[in-house]
Amino acid sequence: MDGHPAKFLRARIRHALFTVVPDRLTGGRLRARHLSQPIELTKIVAAHPDWPRACDGLKIAHLSDFHFGHLADGARIREAVVAANATDPDLVALTGDLIDLHADDCDVLFAELAQLRAPRGIYMVLGNHDHLHAPRKVIAAAREVGITVLINECVDIDINREQLRIGGLDWSNRIPEDAARLRKMGAVPHLLLAHNPKAFASASAYGIPITLAGHTHGGQIARRTKPQHNLAFTHRFTAGLYERDGSHLVVTRGVGAWFPLRVHCPPEIMLLEMHSSD
Ligand SMILES: [Fe+2]
Q1: From the CA of 50, how far away is ligand 1's center (Å)?
Q2: What is the pLDDT of residue 217?
Q3: Centroid of ligand 1 to alpha carbon of 71 (angstroms)
Q4: Segment 164-196, tens digit of pLDDT
Q5: What are the phi and psi torsion angles at 158 (to 5°)?
Q6: How far does residue 33's CA lie from ligand 1's centre (Å)?
Q7: How many domains are there within the chain?
Q8: Using CB atoms within 10 A of its CB, is residue 216 exposed (0-12), middle (13-18) or buried (19+)?
Q9: What stretch of H or E contains 91?
């Protein structure tokens, strides 16, 4: 185990209190109902003048927060993979919290994710839950199936003789840390993956065209008529598309959850179509 023993213990206690006990009290119905919720597809179109012209119309499937474990088994991951493949994406972005607690069985998760189809590749960053138990095991299992794990670094991919630069921030809850990591990356990415939407404060300051994030789960419990009013009240950006100084942020509600309840806040995968603009 190379994670955070104290945080891992707290997460296990929270899991017992908010997931295992309520589920047992309902005879397993809570988990079954949670897993039967259809995964919605949300489509978003955005544009930025610095987005490479050769990548105009690039389709990015954005999946996050599977929380693979008690509340998301291999079958549930397969559902999300099939739905993502049906959108025929050019590339796939996975923005963290792929596992919930233990990394022991993460090979099962990555065997499912290996079925994702995207000609420009699959890119991933780690979330806070991925760091709890054994992040090195998670990273190794992802790379084993060909997923590019970005840990405070960029990769350039060649698309129609132009470079698309994709950056990834490791889990962070501190804006100055995000800014320092972006500074160290050197080149400004066109597309940034970050688990925590808080990274948008630094990403927009750097003029990054688009940042993808998860983490909030859309608050899991939201008002029916105003989904922006939800339980993630400590977060400024909770779900959907945001803009600041021309930069965009997309926050997905994610596929999974850490407690088995979603009210007016269904699980989600996203398809982003990104354009260059003048
Ligand atoms: Fe999460």
Answers
A1: 30
A2: 96
A3: 12
A4: 999 999 999 999 999 999 999 988 999 999 999
A5: -90, 120
A6: 19
A7: 1
A8: buried
A9: strand 91-95
